[in-house]
Specification:
This protein has 12 helices and 39 strands. By secondary structure, the chain is of the alpha+beta class. Among the domains are: about 240 residues, Rossmann fold, CATH 3.40.50.1820; about 140 residues, 7 Propeller (Methylamine Dehydrogenase, Chain H); about 90 residues. It has an 8-stranded mixed beta sheet, with helices on both faces. Strands 3, 4, 5, 6 and 7 form a 5-stranded antiparallel beta sheet that branches. It has a 4-stranded antiparallel beta sheet with strand order 8-9-10-11, with no helix packed on it. Helix 2 packs across helix 12 and helix 6 crosses helix 7.
């Protein structure tokens, strides 16, 4: 049966008053009061109707969707495996079988030959996911003696994981089961034969406010609490020091942190507080030979590296000073050296440094002017060859071994593209485009060398939480680039692409810089002849979806198509509700509109849902996840409802809600491709690129 018109959500007056201002929300009813359970028949019926409208409008595009899907799938090596990496007595790797959505985890003894038949399948995601619409593996942790595997899984997208323990000798699951975990599983207490597992449970508000200890063989109900956080905005996490001597319990929000150390062999020992929290100060810590190594922004926003004796952990001495030019993003300790990771003008750096030799710095050199590089899997304390990862917008991902003593690189594996790929056909550039306040905004762009004139352009942005968007490689984007698109990443303020100041310049009272940067990048790309107004497709997800909502309100005429994935668009209402999972921890990022009238007014001034106005809007595709604990399903549902009410155009507005998934959409490696194919088919349709127009050979 054909559907002639889109669903229209009922309007039910709902008014709340904050700071003397009435906020009317006629679509507040779309939030099920029983969330995270969604059972209200009217709500479910509306979401199903929106999905039916999506299917009806996209039905004529199914041929193109299928073609794009096959095209994208053809670039993935279906039967593939990672490069084995040594950890203790074993080599570990993962494999994908032909046609499989999920991985298999393997190992074999280091001493065994590759073809000796000693390979051991230690975890089969394919079997675990069988019969499930959704599956995701979270934690994966092998005990230090290699005998036991702890892992956690989620089968509905709610990100409340169930942890199990597998005996790797027998292949049997132990009776132990821990439900509602979120985060790592950390082995402790292994020295005296008693085995424990430290985990962080998610509370009713999906907040990790505790670290708990589970002794193997004991009922989960008897698990002991090692630490409880009382600040509702803080989240607790657990991990091991690089030498595996210490359990590290960390607590923090987006701008303040605190860490405690407990001997891993004795998890019930009194914790050692490294330094009590100070508002706006972040730090993380590791230990070697009785010395603490503290990565912190206490005296420079781009972080320094300090040391302190274990006996006086609060006495910090600078080892690497903070710098305006160098953003120190991380420090990894090994037995004989340590590695610093950072960025200079937005480009990754990796440097090997030596204990007791502060002036000895050995940078790892890479061949391209713009790239993404970092440490790969390096599980052992005593390493002399480091596993690195490397890619660029034109260079497929590579796994590299770096010999620290010889300072030489050996490429072990380059991402294989079965359908073929010729890097010489493509060009990547690093541009700088002036924002309206004069700030130079970096832009990474890739396109075919034979592309001529202003053509269609896909512009991606995020700009929040200090998360940088690296100029990495993507096989899926080739489906657009080979059809004449340029693909650009706007490294806008709000991310930390250019350092911590870059992040701060896009948060709180300066949040709107993120939105205007994105618009100004688009205008700059038009001025440089890369594209034209109305020929730009834009995309972003989560906080990047908030970006999409803001710029369609402010500059709708620029965009030819918009993809907003699980968009954080109901910012004001969400930040006004302290009962929601993420809200208290988000106030340092957005502001607290409950207590701060200025924050209330500012958020209200840009919140996409609140700023929908009576005007023409570009074509918009919106996605949501019914079980999403990060951006709740009602945010995109309400936004689409209000857009339908207010917009004056006849452009497409589609909402697709994954009824059995969460924040990340479909979980399988191919099912997620199908969703990308749907997005690209929508974009090609809206930009008027004919279905029968084939991609150029790549």
């Amino acid at each position: 049966m054909s559907i002639a018109t889109p669903p229209v959500a009922a309007r039910k007056p709902h008014i709340e008053t904050h700071h003397g201002v009435e906020i009317r929300d006629d679509y507040a009813w779309l939030r099920d009061p029983g969330y995270p359970e969604v059972t209200d028949p009217a709500i479910l019926a509306h979401l199903v109707a929106e999905n039916a409208w999506f299917e009806a409008r996209m039905a004529p595009r199914q041929g193109r969707i299928e073609a794009l899907f096959k095209e994208m799938r053809g670039r993935i090596k279906e039967a593939d495996r990672s490069v084995p990496q040594k950890d203790g007595e074993y080599l570990y790797w993962i494999e994908y079988e032909e046609g499989a959505e999920y991985k298999k985890w393997w190992r074999r003894p280091v001493a065994a030959r590759e073809d000796s038949g000693a390979d051991q399948l230690i975890l089969d995601e394919v079997a675990l996911a069988e019969g499930k619409d959704y599956f995701r593996l979270e934690a994966f942790s092998v005990s230090s003696d290699g005998r036991l595997l702890a892992f956690s899984t989620d089968d509905n997208g709610s990100e409340r994981y169930t942890a199990r323990i597998k005996d790797l000798a027998s292949g049997e699951l132990l009776p132990d089961e821990i439900t509602g975990t979120l985060g790592a599983l950390v082995w402790v207490g292994e020295g005296d034969g008693a085995r424990g597992l430290v985990y962080t449970p998610a509370n009713e508000q999906w907040r990790t406010d505790r670290a708990c200890l589970h002794w193997l063989g004991q009922p989960a109900e008897s698990d002991m609490q090692l630490y409880r956080e009382t600040d509702e905005g803080f989240r607790v996490s657990a991990g091991l020091s690089a030498n595996e001597q210490w359990l590290v319990l960390s607590a923090g929000d987006h701008e303040t942190s605190e860490a405690r150390l407990i001997p891993a062999a004795d998890p019930l020992a009194a914790p050692l507080l490294v330094r009590e929290r100070r508002a706006g100060i972040e730090y993380d810590v590791d230990e070697r030979g009785g010395t603490l190594y503290i990565h912190t922004n206490d005296d420079h926003e781009n972080f320094r590296l300090a040391t302190a004796p274990l006996s006086a952990p609060e006495e910090w001495t600078t080892l690497i000073a903070g710098s305006d030019d160098y953003y120190l993003t991380g420090v990894d300790l090994f037995r004989d050296f340590f590695v610093t990771s950072g960025r200079v003008r937005g480009l990754d750096t990796i440097e090997v440094r030596y204990y007791g030799e502060p002036d000895r710095v050995e940078p790892v050199r890479f061949p391209e002017a713009s790239f993404s590089a970092g440490l790969g899997d390096n599980p052992e304390w005593a390493m002399d060859v480091l596993r690195l990862s490397y890619e660029s917008m034109v260079s497929p991902a590579s796994a590299i071994d770096y010999d620290v003593a010889a300072r030489t690189m050996t490429t072990l594996k380059v991402q294989e593209i079965p359908s073929g790929y010729d890097a010489s056909l493509y060009r990547t550039e690093r541009l700088e485009i002036a924002a309206r306040d004069g700030t130079a905004i970096p832009v990474s762009i890739v396109y075919r060398r034979d592309r001529t004139g202003p053509g269609p352009l896909y512009l991606y942005g995020y700009g929040a939480y200090g998360i940088a968007i690296d100029p990495g490689f993507s096989t899926t984007r080739l489906s657009l680039v080979d059809r004449g698109f340029a693909y650009a990443i706007a490294h806008i303020r709000g991310g930390d692409d250019l350092g911590r100041a870059w992040y701060k310049a896009g948060k709180l009272e300066r949040r709107t810089n993120t939105f205007t940067d994105f618009v100004d990048v688009a205008k700059g790309l038009i001025e440089r002849g890369h594209t034209a107004a109305g020929r730009i497709a834009i995309a972003g997800g989560s906080a990047g979806g908030e970006l999409m909502g803001a710029v369609v309100n402010s500059d709708p005429q620029l965009w030819g198509a918009v993809a907003a994935h699980v968009p954080f668009v109901d910012v004001l209402n969400t930040m006004l509700d302290a009962s929601l999972p993420l809200t208290p921890g988000e106030w340092p990022e957005w502001g607290n509109p409950i207590e701060d009238k200025a924050a209330f007014e500012l958020i209200r001034s840009y919140s996409p849902y609140d700023q929908v106005k009576r005007q023409a809007y570009p074509p918009v595709l919106v996605t949501a996840g019914l079980n999403d604990p990060r951006v709740t399903y009602w945010e995109p549902a309400k936004w689409v409802a209000r857009l339908r009410e207010m917009k004056t155009d006849s452009n497409e507005l589609l909402l697709k809600t994954n009824m059995g998934a969460g924040h990340g959409g479909k979980s399988g490696r191919f099912e997620s491709l199908r969703e990308t194919a749907e997005e690209f088919a929508f974009i090609l349709w809206q930009l008027g690129i004919a279905d029968d127009e084939p991609p150029q050979a790549g």
